[in-house]
Structures are given as C-alpha cells and as structure tokens.
Amino acid sequence: AQTVTQSQPEMSVQEAETVTLSCTYDTSESDYYLFWYKQPPSRQMILVIRQEAYKQQNATENRFSVNFQKAAKSFSLKISDSQLGDAAMYFCAYRSEGFQKLVFGTGTRLLVSP
Amino acid sequence: KAGVTQTPRYLIKTRGQQVTLSCSPISGHRSVSWYQQTPGQGLQFLFEYFSETQRNKGNFPGRFSGRQFSNSRSEMNVSTLELGDSALYLCASSRGGLAGGNEQFFGPGTRLTVL
Questions:
Q1: What φ, ψ does residue B85 adopt, rounded to 5°?
Q2: Parallel, antiparallel, or unpaired: how do β-strands A19-21 and A102-104 relate?
Q3: Tens digit of pLDDT at every position of chain A (114 positions)
Q4: CB B34 within 8 A of CB B46
Q5: Which of B35, B41, B32 is nearest to B94 (CA)?
Q6: Cβ atoms < 10 Å from Cβ of A49
Q7: Does A100 sit within 8 Å of B98, measured CB to CB?
Q8: For strand B53-57 and strand B10-13, is the pairing parallel, antiparallel, or unpaired?
Q9: DSSP string covering A39-108, please?
Q10: CB contact, 8 Å: B10 with chain A?
Q11: Chain B residues with CB inside 8 Å of A47's CB?
Q12: Is B68 in contact with B5 (CB distance < 8 Å)?
C-alpha cells in the first residue's frame, strides 16, 4: 500500500519570505500523481498544485512550485513571497494511475506572520 | 459554475442512530469520492462512485455505505453511529476518467458530532 509522510507538523514563515514544506511517499508503482492541497480554517480543501510522475519537469503555479525527486520519492512544496492568506493546513496526496482514491499525509500547519 | 455542495453542513446525532449525508458534484462530473477527516486518523478514503457504481472502497466497516444517483448526486449513510464516527466528512467530485491527473474538487464538508 502507498503511504505519504509529512514530517513537519507545523512551519512558520514571515510575509514575503519563502518556505518549503516536505513530503515523502512510498510506492512500488511507476505511474502516479502527486498533489498538494490547502485546507484553510474554513475547511474547504483546495488544490494547490499537481505533478505527474512521468514528467521530469517540476510543476509551478504562480508562487507555488514543487521539487519532485522521483528516485528519492520526495515531493516538497515551495511557497515564495508568502502571504497572510497562505496560512492553512497543507496536505500532500498520492493517487495511483487508474484510481481516484487519494492517499493523504498527516498535514503541515503553516503559520504566516506579518 | 457551481462548486461541490454538501448538506447538511453540521449534524449532531446520538450513539446508535443512523445518518445520511448528501453530496452534489460539479455539473458534468460523474465521479464522487468520500473521505473522513479526524484529528487522530487524518484523511481517510471511504469510497468512490462513478456512474451509479461503487468503483473503489476504503477500509471501513459495513456500517458505512453509499450510493449514487443517475444525476451523479451521492449519499453516504452511517448506521449504528459510534462516538468514533465524529468527524468531518468530505466529498470530492471529478470527471471520473482514471487516466491522467483528473482533478478532484472538494466540497465544504459535513461536520458530524456523535454524542
């Protein structure tokens, strides 16, 4: 079974600074997808960024980018120019090719201070 | 385009009762997945429905069941409620294709409290 590990329960960053959230996963599959979801206090889960395992190029969405290291099974999220609105729980998730089921990590709470 | 809606948003039940939660996916989406979120267990997959058929199931007891209607709306039912069933229940919808990075959109969740 696939597992996702987020070893940082909480991270802090100041506005305008950069922060990196870590995620590692375990799988024997070669085709899969990785996601970062944001869950603000309102509880609505929002997709931040996704990465296809077959793509070597790291995904980027505006201030959000990932560092995908397939051999190391590592998938970190970098948030640049942090904003107060970035404060939330961030979940790393894995999805196998051929399935809709998402396997989530335990989450990292991101605190953003002015 | 309207997002995923879940009703009710909050529910309080007592042990032994049963409960039904509803999820309306985004128009055009045929797949609905359900997740349970608790502080202790985190986010866990319950099941997924596609075109009225359960396509995948997580590791939950038979007290947890679901169904999907022809308009893709989905319901999940929990019978004989236990204190441990207190959780945020999230549903997510997608177009349903299994190939490709099929994006799932989440609803706001239903907060169930079992007393």
A1: -85, -10
A2: unpaired
A3: 899 999 999 999 999 999 999 999 999 998 999 999 999 988 789 999 999 998 889 999 999 999 999 999 999 999 999 999 999 999 999 999 888 899 999 999 999 999
A4: yes
A5: B32
A6: 20
A7: yes
A8: unpaired
A9: E-TT---EEEEEEETT--SPPEETTEEEEEETTTTEEEEEE-S--GGG-EEEEEEEEETT---EEE---E
A10: no
A11: 103-105
A12: no
CB-based contact A24:A5 (threshold 8 Å): yes
Q: Which residue of B has its CA nearest to A5?
A: B42
pLDDT the model gives residue B32: 95
**Average pLDDT in chain B:** 93
Q: Report the chain B residue with the minimal C-alpha distance to residue A93.
A: B43
Say yes or no to pLDDT of B15 above 80. Answer: yes
Query: Model confidence over B53-82: pLDDT tens digits?
Result: 999 999 999 999 999 999 999 999 999 999
3-state secondary structure of B107: coil
Contact B45 A50 (CB under 8 A): no
Contact criterion met (CB below 8 Å) for A99 and A33: no
